[in-house]
Write a structure and sequence with these properties.
Elements lengths: L7 H43 L6 E2 H4 L10 E19 L2 E12 L4 E10 L14 E9 L25 H4 L11 E4 L21 H39 L13
Parallel strand pairs: 1-2, 4-6
Antiparallel strand pairs: 2-3, 2-5, 3-4, 5-6
Helix pairs in contact: 1-4
């Protein structure tokens, strides 16, 4: 009855099934591991952002900024230089702007420091002046922003003294000295401003991409089940057809041709 499984047609079907099932399981497991990695990185990033009492490490030990160091507490010493405003930044649902001051370090490079947030339209007259003399700042290390991502403005033509993104690529055209490819938001804002909370690095949150990985996981396992279902369905149809043929219920010309 089941000798048809030895025909070339069924050999092809069986080989396809034997290859498709482990492939689908592998791909589903891989997508699931991607989702689990994102969940773990999300928890790690949240722990880093919440732990503001950890010992601050020197800036040079945390560069370049990556998922492991973003949000870490860091410290740097230098003299405040040029001050800029970063407009169109929300905090607690209110519109406002960041007060960004470049900290000139002993190495000659400048570290962008967000000293705080103020409500309303960006106004240089309302932004408190930076402290003079040598200062030591402590805050959360952040990666350079990318215009157009995570709500960062990509608009150009801003007034003098303003920048749309906090990044070395944007600031290099505004200040005459080298800028670190990173920035720091102070734990305690200066002069009555509101401290800007650190944000998790990109690709670490439970965002749409994370749930896409979870959705793909389900799809691959469904594909594996569908392959098994179709194999049993084809097998059953073949067996029923042969039984009907043996009982003379199928015309001879309708019988399947085995090769």
């Amino acid at each position: 009855m089941y000798r048809f499984l030895l025909t070339r047609r069924w050999w092809g079907i069986n080989v396809f099934v034997l290859l498709a099932i482990p492939f689908c399981i592998f791909m589903g497991s891989w997508q699931l591991s991607r989702f689990e990695d994102r969940v773990q990185s999300h928890h790690t990033a949240d722990e880093q952002l919440a732990d503001t009492h950890e010992k601050a490490r020197p800036l040079r030990e945390l560069l370049p900024v990556d998922q492991a160091t973003s949000g870490e507490q860091t410290t740097a010493t230098g003299h405040y230089g040029k001050q800029l405003l970063v407009p169109d930044r929300q905090l607690d649902g209110r519109d406002g702007y960041y007060v960004l001051t470049l900290l000139r370090t002993d190495g000659g490079q400048a570290l962008p420091v967000v000293r705080g947030w103020l409500p309303g339209k960006a106004d240089a007259a309302k932004a408190p002046a930076a402290p003079t003399g040598e200062v030591t700042v402590t805050g959360a290390l952040q990666a350079s922003e990318t215009p157009g991502d995570n709500g960062v403005s990509a608009q150009g033509g801003l007034p003098a003294g303003q920048t749309g993104a906090i990044s070395s690529a944007s600031l290099i055209n505004i200040v005459p000295y080298k800028v670190y490819d990173a920035w720091v938001t102070l734990d305690r804002a200066d002069a009555g401003m509101t401290a800007v909370p650190a944000t998790a690095p990109q690709n670490t949150g439970l965002d749409l991409k994370a749930f896409q990985n979870l959705g793909y996981t389900g799809e691959w396992f469904v594909f594996a089940g569908f392959v098994v279902f179709m194999w049993f369905r084809l097998l059953r149809r073949e067996v029923e057809f042969l039984r009907d043929a043996e009982m003379g219920l199928v015309a001879e010309e309708e019988q399947p041709v085995t090769v």
